[in-house]
Amino acid sequence: MKNISIVLPVHNEIENLKKLILDWNCQLNKKKIDHEFVIVEDGSTDGTKNLISELETNFPIINLSQKEKRGYSKAVIDGIYSSSKNYILCTDSDNQIGVKSLIESLKILPFEDEFLIGYRNPRKDPLNRILYSKIFKIFHTFLFNPKLKDPSCPFVIGQKKTFKKLDKKKLGYMKEGFWWGFVGVCKKQKFKIFETPIEHFSRESGEASYKLKHLPGIILRNIKGLLKIKFL
Prior knowledge:
Blueprint: E1 4-10, H1 17-30, E2 35-41, H2 48-55, E3 61-63, H3 72-82, E4 87-91, H4 99-105, E5 114-120, H5 127-144, E6 155-159, H6 160-163, H7 168-171, H8 178-188, E7 192-198, H9 215-231
Parallel strand pairs: 1-2, 1-4, 2-3, 5-7
Antiparallel strand pairs: 4-6, 5-6
Helix pairs in contact: 5-9, 8-9
């Protein structure tokens, strides 16, 4: 088994993060999988920073905490470039995706210039977030036609050298909708993407959905970001 870095963007996840690290570390050790957690803390105000400092004394953690909020996209990019293992899994820290999905995916690890992306089956997010994704997928398909069931799924595995071939500037064009942009960049660079079903859970704690008043701005920024990836 190749070794793997698990990149986790984190913002105010004090109620979810410890359980995630405990569960994942235990199962990966049982499978004798060499791993590290690259925790990209992003300006948390709920005690998450202190929790990470406690966890890194007992677990294989690269702690990328900082005071200022850098945003989700930059957090993922920073995590990728700070990883040390041959393979990288990028996922979220909200405990909606379990370690079982990673272990099952290790049987079909991607080759160079390939990525494995999950599709949530079924997706356990709030209805407004699912509806937003379905509508936005129409626009995304028009631009890139990736032929994916779930192009915004935060579960992506690839070789570190493949991640680092991606156009870093273009990856930064998307602020909130990073994985939409990631898929677009992969299509532009003609990298292969294949999908696998993953188990998705409802969020137990924390904020899972964009507030309605923020959606128009988010949609507009994401449209602009995808257009820049497509045409610049």
